[in-house]
Fold each of these.
Amino acid sequence: MKNQSINTNQEYKYGFTTDIENIRAPKGLNENSIKFISKMKKEPQWMLDWRLKAYSRLKNLKEPNWQKPKYPKINYQDLYYYSAPKSASNKPKSLDEVDPKLLETYKKLGIPLNEQKKLAGVAVDAVFDSVSVATTYKEELTKKGIIFCSISEAIQKHPDLVKKYIGSVIPITDHYFATLNSAVFTDGSFVYIPPNVRCPMELSTYFRINASETGQFERTLIIADKGSYVSYLEGCTAPMRDENQLHAANVELIALDDAEIKYSTVQNWYPGDKDGVGGIYNFVTKRGACRGKNSKISWTQVETGSAITWKYPSCILQGDNSVGEFYSIAITNNHQKADTGTKMIHLGKNTKSKIISKGISAGKADNTYRGLVDISRKAKNSRNYTQCDSLLMGNKCGAHTVPYIKNKNSSSTVEHEATTSKINEEQLYYCNQRGLNQEEAVSLIVNGFCKEVLQQLPMEFAVEAQKLVGISLEGSVG
Amino acid sequence: MLENFKIDSNEIDKIKHINNDDKNFRIENLNLFNNTGFPGKKEEDWKFSDTRAIFSKNFGKLSLGNSNSKETDIKLIKDFDHNYMFLVNGKLIKSDFKFEDKSKIKISNYHEEKFSEKKSENPFICLNHALSNSGYYLEIKEGYKFEKVLVIYNLFTKDLSNQILNNKNKIVVKKNSELHTINYTINRSKNKFINNSYDNTILFENSKYKNICIQADKSDGYFHRFSNNKLKSDSNFSSFIFSSGLKFYKQDINVDLEGENSECDIKAALFLDNDEHQEIKTKINHLVPNCKSYQKIKNVLDSEGKGIYQGKIYVKDIAQKTNAYQLSKALLLDDNSEFNSKPELEIYADDVKCSHGSTSGSIDENSIHYLMTRGLTKKEAIQLLINGFLNEIVSEIKSSSIRKFVENKIELQIHGY
């Protein structure tokens, strides 16, 4: 039973492409393509200036090279920096006007956009390639004064808010990929929750990379004003493709006094085939600032896709008593590589952070947790708890833990623990005995291993994530 | 000034008795060092110990040390019987193995035999390769177990000032043999100087080597020590590190577990205050199955003391059934003290047990309160708790007379608190 061979990896479930005509910017990274993007987006001058400033800085920057997963050099001149479905030039006013092919794609993905939207109670700002196509539930949100729209729309309609907060957490002087994003970002989501408003539903954006050879540069900005609360979901699937595609998104979160932001991600982009050909490069910068007192930011991520995942959703705990949390599951199979973790920068007094990271590697994959806990001299009575567990399946894969811990304060406490192990044979045997086959047993055990993180996800996401965990590991034990 | 510290190649000509291979090897390494200088915080391994900044702050000038001092009088430790070796500024002056069978021991000045060693990325090692001109070679022949401990007295003389010393040592323990050493540093110099040493240890099948590092008292030394340890099957290496009393000390310990069932233990108990900076960096390479490694590092940090632990466990894909453990704990007594750690795991085999933990925080207020209700003053209570914290390591020394000796040394340090 143990050695029974299991059918090869399940084909990528969401691998399909849709034929929609694209409008593309000319290939290459230069001032003209940035101006083209800005023009297509009908952006004001200050936005263009900001982009160009980032671009001029980018010219002096080098790509970082300290990460564990190395990747072939990317030719930035060979990418398209803008591609939009044609039907977006004259935006549809209702769903009926939306390109039926698009709707069909979403249906395959199970996005509750049309008739499912009321049932699921989810407001969706769907990004097909780079332009927001349709936004639902706007009315209900508008009533509460919540702004949930594409960032391009926000730049036009709420320039003050955008101007004030964009780049305040991830400045244009940040690292290479963040700066690249600042120069060429095409679209993304914008959320503003006014003071003392609790967002009545989970806000969600589904990203989807579609057009071939298009780098996707999302920019998300979420602001939770005093005393507000929002839970934001981000989920990703991408069509099957051979070429490596770069995805360098920036996500900025700002929580003011007593505000709370919960940001959940399920990432299931195309990981490349069994031999490691193709797949998405997921180089994302996510950072949240707990600006106000008693504010809280919580990151939850389930990373199962992408050829290379390289991201560190971080929290800057500026406000006194602020809280940062990071829950992560990273699953790598075949030739996938992940280098992910978090940074918790404690600046305010009585700040707390918690990190739970679960890494699972199988096949020939490499999985690295890399994190920083930095307690500054002024952050009195701060606390951190970190737990990183790794699970290895087979001796061709690797699991690595690289935590950096800095404590400069005698009243603060930092705790870190990490373990690495394999799936317990006895547990497998027990499950087999009860009639579960090898794959079901692995899926069950791994789901148990990840439970602490899965619990953090909102209901709809948790179900999808649990399925993903099982699917991602199929064929890895046998 | 020191930021661009470079060493002229004619310094190599001054070293006596070297052949062509040796000379080329030295020149190559000197160039490597001159290209980088002392490493700074931009280099990953030196992130927490910025020697470029530390050295340029503390040394206006720096010259190469001479190891021919006339000072050789050392007071022997009276607490326990022991064999001894005298090193003065790194140079072997005298040795006495009165408790042992001398035919089983080979001792001489260090002499390099092969120069094919891999290039090192550590500028201190390059510097050592280029300039080391003193040190010892100690070999314990097959099947001999030391009766008494060997104390290696490491004397640094009064006349040292703004100098850098480079020395290289090698210890070989052959099959079925056992050796126990104490590295005891005595520093008579009241001035600042740098000592850069490179220790090579090879443990053959079924051998045992135990080592304790401790020093007589506080001093203004800036030390870097790289120790490279190779373990053959069934061998056992254990190392205790106690506070150095130095201003700066970086111990870089590399252990290759090359033979099955080999074991390695690294334990440290450090009390650092007054701007002392001590880093322990370890890399334990599990290269074959069924090996064990265990690390436990404890730091107590007061007034601007800075403790650093960078530990890495590497498990090769074939090294199944590895058991590796790593724990670092720190007590911060003062807001100006600092503890940085980077406990790293790099694992490629699945049937392994690897774990690490790292904690840092203050002394538990409840414990202080409890002790005070029992009649202790606050200071006494804190001292008692620190002692208890560090004693966990000290109590693992088996010989009671040596343990007492170490306990006394540590108590003296804590008393200053």
Amino acid sequence: MTASPPLLDVRDLAVAFDTESGTVRAVNGVSYTLREGETLGIVGESGSGKSVHVLAMLGLVPRPPGRITGGQVLFRGRDPEGHDQARDLLAMPERHLRRVRGAEIGMVFQDPMSSLNPAMTVAAQIAEPLRLHLGLGAREARARARDLLDLVRIPDASRRLDHYPHEFSGGQRQRVMIAIGLACRPKLLIADEATTALDVTVQAEIVALVQELKREIGMAIVWITHDLGVVAGIADTVQVMYAGRIVERGPVDAVFSDPRNAYTLGLLRSLPDLSRDRAGRQRLRQIEGSPPDMRHPPPGDPFAPRNPFATPRCRTEAPPLAQVEGSVPGHLAAAWYDLPALLAAGAGR
Amino acid sequence: MSEAGLSTAAEMAAPPVAALPPEPGALRAFWRRFSRRRGALAGLVVVVLLGILALGAAWIAPFDPTATDWGAVRAAPTLTHLFGTDEVGRDVLSRIVYGTRASLGAGLTSVALAVALGLPLGMLAGYAGGVIDGAIMRLTDALLAIPFLILAIALAAFLGPSLTNAMVAIGLSATSIFVRLTRAQVQAAAAEDFVEAARAVGNPPWRIALHHILPNIVPAILVQATLTIAAAIIAEASLSFLGLGQQPPEPSWGSMLNTAKNFLDQAPWMAIWPGLSIFLAVLAFNLVGDGLRDALDPRERR
């Protein structure tokens, strides 16, 4: 699609957890690419593997019980000599990976209340990646920390440097987390449910801030969420995950207006539609059933047991992720059934 | 008393006590919560007074604590000898004042030793896990199976009678408490989100342990240390009572009690004052420890 090689190239990533009651296959062969400067929204319910696969790429899944059972994650970052080169994060020794974490890939976590160290000033926490990766001294790092607080629009930055996290509001703490994530100007920022724990108005502020920062810095973003509204607002590409697989992926407009996987449709239908008038009031549709037990995933399409459109083939054979015919290039879906045709015929009402 | 003070370690282990940031606002808030408790405040006053006595003993004590006066053997309290004299005519008040040194010194030194050994071992066990954790914890469990005082007596007897050896014996006996507490606190702290965030920033494990986990477990260690000082004071008094601690003629509350027991009918003041001193010192440290715990408890914020 583009001439330049991708920033991130995930190939067939698989992650499993060994538990006492069996092996949980949390991620099962996830493959995708991310261009420089692209914003990818990853959606799915809890346990879909959306967070775990990202933590696994960065070596943050505790081992044991976690285990990377296969795949490659090629990230085009600076190698030790300072050249841009695609290297497999999964094959890197831990001490090399530590130089990628926080330096070339920044991370923002879900709960800003607990993700900041209560016993450290925000200046010390923002300065940490700068001192670790750029080798800055205390004074320089502090000056940069103040600039970063400015960057994430925290008023009166110089005075607030020596404050502790409990003196900041939830939204401000998430701004501090973003400042830490962006401190070393990474090529990629991963936000793992970064707005989930915040009030709706604060969520909007954080999303707006990230969009502004993206314009200023130009990093690529992987935004993991279960909030489709946020994805619609922020992402270029959306990727829907279910049971440790990608079930649909493509440009946001294409996927949201013309979903081809029944799970994507279910997610979209579970959203309230504010544009409807009162007379057309509609019950929110929930997706029946519950996610599969990943110790014993069903054969075939893992969503088939909950899928009103499932065909006999769905129950025996897992569909591949393939280009959707009649949609824009890059719109991929995993389905044996033809969702638009079924909907037109009145199925699944 | 000592058993009660020690058993709190296990109960405290579960929730990590909130951090104590060295920042004026937070310190003031901490002081407000602490000083609201009258018992804690009273305990702190006694501890400070005992500290002054120990440091200023040479100026405060009216007599040389080892000087004998055969003209006033087992004399009842008078204006000259406010607390009376002992079986060789030494001034009991002066011996109590100097005895503060042995008691506080033993309490502080032995607990410092216990923390110095227990904290690194506990952090290693809690953070490294696996075989290292197993080895350290089995050894700790074995030591914890022996009652604190019995272990201290055995060690002191093995090392030979002297105040220094008594301190070492008490310190070694108390180490396992700190290993266990530190390990539990480290494990609780290591599961916190901010530790994962610290890893995501690229911190190496040693930095996470020292910069991110340690500051967050200090309050819990501080509380336990204060309570253990009380237990160590009793232990020192017990060892000295048995002749395993401070050696005569140097004064110690425990050894004073030992001689006093022979003269309970004729000279009860010889027993009352050291007994009261031990009681006060132990009570004071326990009150301060309880106050610290309450003031640092995140569930009782505001």
